[in-house]
Amino acid sequence: MKSAFRGLLFVSLVLSFSCQHEPVEEGVSTASPLFQLRAGAETGLDFVNEIVENDTVNYFSFMHMYMGAGVAAGDVNNDGLSDLFFVSNLGQPRLYLNRGELRFEDVSSQAGIAVVPGFSTGAAMADVNGDGWLDIYLCRSGWFQHPEPRRNLLFLNNGDGTFTESAQAWGVDDDAPSIQAAFLDYDHDGDADLFLVNTPVAFELTSVLLPLDQVHQSKDLRRFKGYDRLFRNDGNRFTDVTEQAGILSDIGFGLGVVAADFNQDGWTDIYVANDFMTPDALYINQGDGTFRERNRDFFKHTSFYSMGADVADINNDGWNDLFVLDMLPEDYKRSKITMEMVDPKAFFQAVEWGYNYQYMHNVLHLNNGNETFSEIGQLAGITKTDWSWSALLADFDLDGWRDLFVSNGILRDVTERDYKAKIKALKEQLGRPPRFSEFEHLIPSHKLPNYAFRNRGDLTFEKVSEAWGVALPSFSTGAAVADLDNDGDLDIVTNNSNEPAFLFENTAERSRRHFLKVQLQPAPNTTALNARVFLRRADGSLWQSAEMTPVRGYMSSSEPIVHFGLGQEERVPILEVVWPDGKLSRLEDVPADQTLRVPYRPELPDWQPPARPEPLFAEESATRLEPPFVHRENAFDDFRQQILLPHRQSQNGPPLAVGDVNGDGLEDFFVGGAKDQAAALYLQTPEGRFRRQSSPHLEKDRTFEDTGALFFDADGDGDLDLYVVSGGVEWPAGSSAYQDRLYRNDGRGRFSLDAGALPEIRASGGCVAAADYDRDGDLDLFVGGRIIPDQYPYPPRSFLLRNDGHAFHDATPAQDPNLPRIGMVCSAVWTDFNGDDLPDLVLAGEWMNIEFFENQNGRLALVTAQMGFERTRGWWNKLLPTDLDQDGDTDFLAGNLGLNYKFHTSPDKPFRVFCNDFDGNGTYDIVLAKNIGERYVPVRGRTCSSEQMPFIKEKFPTFNAFADAGIEDIFGREKLDEALQYEAHLFETVLLRREGDSYRIEPLPLQAQIAPVTGGTVGDFTGDGRPDLLIAGNKFGAEVETTRADAGIGLLLEGSPEGAFRPVHVLRSGFFAPHDVRDLQPIQLADGRRAVLVANNDQPLQLFVPRKSEQRIGAVEEF
Fold it and tell me: Within a 10 A sphere around the Cβ of 969, how many other Cβ atoms?
């Protein structure tokens, strides 16, 4: 193969956010993989990072031993070819000059590159002294008591092929255990400053759980020399400004760092990926020489064992997204023998102490553009890459979307769960602790393939490791990308432990696709660190964006150039460079297939950010709710009896009900309370505000957990009465605390409990819906049972309540026998789906089909199979009836779990649950199972499964034995056949479009699948005469080994003339609902505008108000 620019520059935010609707050009079919591994004998790259252990120095005496080393790419001799610098942990680093045509020469000796014996880690190239030549910074660590072998080194480029080590002279010969250095111009003074990632001398501190504020404020911790450092470049020397700049003192085991602008204010921020307990850090640049750590503000959760990281615009919306690696294996067996069980008590203690939620898998944080991110790794399909080190986001196939490469493999599987028992047995045999040389053979060692993922352009990635030729089993650690042969595509170089380095030659130039490389020089900092480059189409709309961030991945730095794949496009209509100091360069009609050199000039104009579009909605909870309502969930351990419960069932409220309760023509609302919290009734004033009314009966019933609510006229007196469903699991099954309540309205909005109006209901419920099913002139009720405490997933009792005008009676026994125990019902809708003018019943819930009950003259008959919905089981949350296509019949929005979750399913390989008393101790045991090959295996691991069912540990004495077993091996066919069994067929949120006598299932766009949908409403929110969808939801109550679903921020979907729905970016919609949403209801304001209420579990109620009475989405400035 031969300064302020928040909201950056995008025309039509709406178009960019729905970019997945644009077809992604398919790759050109070739007989050979995209990448070809070039042998060292051919390239001259004969480097091997050799790791040699002995009884004194090994992994167990020095944890860095298997962490590998870095590689740096850059043109150190300014001949137009990128050269390579390899780090050796225990030996000498090597500098290879690129002689062209992928041939390299080792010039280390003559260049003066040498180190005293020690342990080296990461490397970075940057022009430290601003002379136009790339210098090399080398990080060092080690077990040495004397600091000299641990001191970092700075090799200044003399411009004549030689380097002079100058770290002490420049004040950066830090002797803490260092991993990686990132250069950035954080203060906009035109030079390269230095951020240094260190690890503690006392490794054991990285797993110590202390209140995070205490960790950050402790001066004592600095004696462990484990805190990261920031050095300001003062022209001829660096000054340590760590403390004054706000860089926190902690005990983090930092492994990755990226410096980039995460909030688009024109100032470079810093993300540090920390291994072990200490959370990752996001330092937001304040523009005054200081930083604020804001991890928890920007991210709802992060990875736990954070490794390498990279930043790039993965969806071409103009905002930097973030990918961070962890170590979750893709292989089922490896996941069961190498991953530790999460201790729930420690997990929630860490959250309480400020550590954020941390989970053991790769994370992809999608930038929402409002200083928040949504983590979409499960949706993207890139969470499991095993013991990974370096993550590199780049457009490898030149199709215009940034793909992903992951280096992989650790020299020994030190987390394998069984080898320690073998060492213990050896110790007993020897009568003393064994030496390393005596037990090293007991530690498994498996080379692992590197990974490649192709960006499909729709927020998902396709695994192409084999197809692209990078899946070579290895111990690859540091990695860099560079166009080593200047043919326009990016090659990959990896530093491998105990085997030659890999050079993967990219052959994308053989396709018909085009590229553009942008070289920014000279600049205030000579490589224009953190400059942003934007490609635009002829109409000014955003095409792609990228930031100059050479230090990426793990212990490494890549070629300092901005690279774009252009697909079939031969020209770039508009190219803009926003320089680090805020100046703007703009070029037009730029030909493809070249290295474009863009010069910096002081007289360039300042970049002026476009005016932000006015959002369609504004949140006005604080000004319109008097006082604001805050739901306060009670503390309760849902897992005390059923340890393997997938998620909490005690957090299913609060519900909402909307209606004019006092007859003044204005809509009011009810919001339910948690256990020991009174519900609230708000009446609307003529000014469109809502005032909470005193309600003694609601206050008295505060001990109930409210999970469903409905305003309806129960007694035909012309006013709205209130039905409240009691739910939760805080009381034993059958408790009177699950009795539902009917509150009668006196016509003036004052409610009193009618204790005799309802039959005895002792089931924990979830929803209620009203209709005159028997056509006797009054409204009857269906009440959906949600859960039986400690008996998940057994179906609770549901009720059909017939209204006789004075009270309600249980009419369920007269209905279809499937109705009383139809399932764990979450939503119920009465609608005439067969056109006979009788209200039929449609239900949805957890592990349920969308169930259809036909009203056959007052008797409800199950007709789900006849409707073609017998294989639609999911984790349904909400049914919303509406006429989406305005053809006069009822369609549905069906809110489901979504696709951004640990559990996935399909009709041919359904996700399954079994429940039985498998161990005979009188409790209900849950077994979640997934399909692997030709068998089903348990989702949960040996440790937690044994806590629920102790026989498992006895039957399978090793983790390997458990990992080799399917559920039939573990539980036996007979016990499984006796068990309650459900399966799920789809988890997507869908539309049900009425077609003839049934419904067509149509998944919503992928942006609607990043979180569960628990609430929604339909209306013309854009003023164009077509129905739009407003949806929201999350699921925060997952058990600790399942990442909570928290990526949802609410979503407006604009209806198109063709009947499709396109996502509208939150910056345009203004609808930002990031909490654990439980209900969403429209409410008419006094001035006629249609507002939206959002009820959140354990968070404030939100009220969103349209800014205009009529509004529609047109072309808007993209940021």
Answer: 15
